Amino acid sequence: MPDQDQLQRFAFENTLIRGEYVHLDSTFQDALSRHDYPPIVANVLGQAMAATVLLGATVKFEGSLILQLQGKGPMTLLVVQLFANGSLRGLANWDSDPLPDTDQLSALFGKGHLAITIEANLSNANQTTPGRPKDERYQGIVDFGQGNIAQALEGYFQQSEQLNTRLWLSVTEQHAAGLLVRTIPSNQSQSQIDNNENWNRIVIFSDTISKDEMIGLSFRELMRRLYHEEDVRVFEPEIIRFRCTCSRTRIEDLLRRLGIDEVRSILQDTQKVEVDCEYCKQHYSFDAIDAEKLFVKEIISDAPKTRH
């Protein structure tokens, strides 16, 4: 029985190799239930959601990690956001139907790029920088190339981190799963030959995993299936869940930033200000009275003062 909606970290003892495994069930289904996605769009979204959780396991951050794919092909945008508390949300936009039946990013998005953004208080999992500002925003961008999401991310790690990283993803109509193995920087006196031998051996074992096994096996079964000859240390699982951060308060703040004149202009045309969250489809409605309440302080401060 697969471990539902969990991230599982593990380490290979006496090596510089770490691993992460994620299995998404209701988290993935909740994201799909709010949109009528074509099968290939749902598949790529599932890959991106699993990949984002795995990426989040490689860094420490307070805030959110965002994986974004953008282009001018049949698909135009895919965004997945992971929060430090394990909350995950995602959405995808497409313009044409039928879509190509492939997960190759260049076929789906045309010419475009993949961006990884980490917002607020970033610190590398293996290194921290004294004096780093708490609200730091980091972004890395890589072209799609000729592969899928896993291959694009492997290229990103090789380009930006210069660390060995391999990634395997699998998606069905109901589930999304992923496996990542990576080397970590270290000052340990371990020869490069040993490091390469360890890495090559782990990749050979990992490469035997099938998409069905990644979805259908439990984490313990997966570890026995792939790494029964290795000394593997397993850490406590972390729960992942679909949760959107939208709220009426956030929408009110958005309307205040638009300004009273712009909001009144919308009300003149439609009698209501209607806002739908793209991630979860939650609907927010503001009539004239609701809108005026948002600007009470501004209206009072602008009123003419009468001296008696």
Automatic annotation (TrEMBL):
- Write one Gene Ontology MF term: protein folding chaperone
PANTHER family, alphabetized = 33 KDA CHAPERONIN (PTHR30111)
Tell me the InterPro entries matching this sequence. Answer: Heat_shock_Hsp33, Heat_shock_Hsp33_C, Heat_shock_Hsp33_N, Hsp33_helix_hairpin_bin_dom_sf
Name the record gives this protein: 33 kDa chaperonin HslO
Q: Which Pfam families match?
A: HSP33
Q: Output the Gene Ontology cellular-component terms.
A: cytoplasm
Q: Which UniProt keywords apply?
A: Chaperone, Cytoplasm, Disulfide bond, Redox-active center, Zinc
Name its GO BP terms in alphabetical order: protein refolding
Q: Which source organism does the UniProt entry give? A: hydrothermal vent metagenome
Concerning Gene3D superfamilies, the annotation shows:
helix hairpin bin, Hsp33 domain, HSP33 redox switch-like
Q: Does the keyword Zinc apply?
A: yes
